[in-house]
Amino acid sequence: MSNTVKIQLTKGLAGKTEREKKILMGLGLKRSNQIVEQKNSPSIMGMISKVAHLVTIIEK
After folding, report:
1. Global pTM exceeds 0.85
2. Full residue range of the structural domain in which residue 42 is found
3. pLDDT band at 60, cuts 50/70/90?
4. At 46, which CATH number?
C-alpha cells in the first residue's frame, strides 16, 4: 500500500450537512472535481469513509 492517497470530490457541497462539510474541509477539498493528495493514515481513511458517497479514491 502506498504512503499517499489521491481523493477527488465528485459532488458539490450544496445541501450537505455541516459535519460533512467540515470533514471535506479537513481533507482539503473545497470545490467539486478537486483532487488532493493526503497521507494514507487510519484517520484519513476514517474521514474518507464518512464521506464516501461524495468522494472517489483515484488510483495511481
Report:
1. yes
2. 4-58
3. low
4. 3.30.1390.20
